[in-house]
Write a structure and sequence with these properties.
Elements lengths: L1 H25 L9 H17 L5 E6 L4 E6 L7 H15 L3 H7 L21 E6 L2 E9 L4 H19 L2
Antiparallel strand pairs: 1-2, 1-4, 3-4
Helix pairs in contact: 2-5
């Protein structure tokens, strides 16, 4: 009886491992992306977090490739804020780390300072990668608060508001 159970388990493992190998040989990968509805909800919650702190900002949500999904600008946010928010979000997904950290790591005189010359990269706090299951699925950028730390805090509050939708 134990022999049959072991044989069935071995057969299952063999079938599963050959399926995984076959998929790898096809040359395709599966990606997780935010739905438009979740991206909108993330942007709205981020904007709300800044409003609650009495700041008028712009919020951008980009997908894992840096393509804009949502862009919101509060009525009194500066004209530069939408593009700045988009660049912060793009930088966060491109470099796979928040832009507050990048602003420190890429200071003039550091070995990584050259990263500041990458087209569209913006090493100012307020861009945060959005992770789900250990993978970056999006980025959110905020511009218009009085500091990069404030923009970063708003972005993180927005992410926290949609965390349950990101678990898989």
């Amino acid at each position: 009886m134990n022999f049959k159970l072991i044989a069935v388990a071995l057969l299952c493992v063999t079938c599963l491992s050959s399926t995984a190998t076959a998929k790898e040989e096809e040359g395709l990968v599966t990606l997780q992306l935010l739905t438009p509805e979740t991206a909108i909800e993330l942007a709205q919650n981020t904007l709300k977090a800044c409003r609650n702190a009495n700041y008028q900002v712009a919020v951008a949500v980009v997908d894992r490739m840096g393509v804009t999904q949502v862009l919101l600008r509060d009525r009194f946010a500066g004209p530069h804020t939408p593009e700045t928010a988009r660049r912060k979000a793009w930088t966060a997904v491109s470099f796979r780390v928040d832009t507050l950290t990048l602003s420190d790591r890429t200071k003039p005189g550091t070995p990584q300072s050259g990263a500041r010359f990458v087209t569209d990269a913006l090493m100012i706090g307020g861009g945060v990668p959005v992770e789900a299951g250990g993978f970056i699925v999006a980025g959110v950028g905020v511009s218009g608060g009085p500091s990069g730390e404030v923009d970063d805090a708003c972005a993180r509050e927005g992410i926290n508001a949609v965390l349950e939708k990101l678990e898989f």
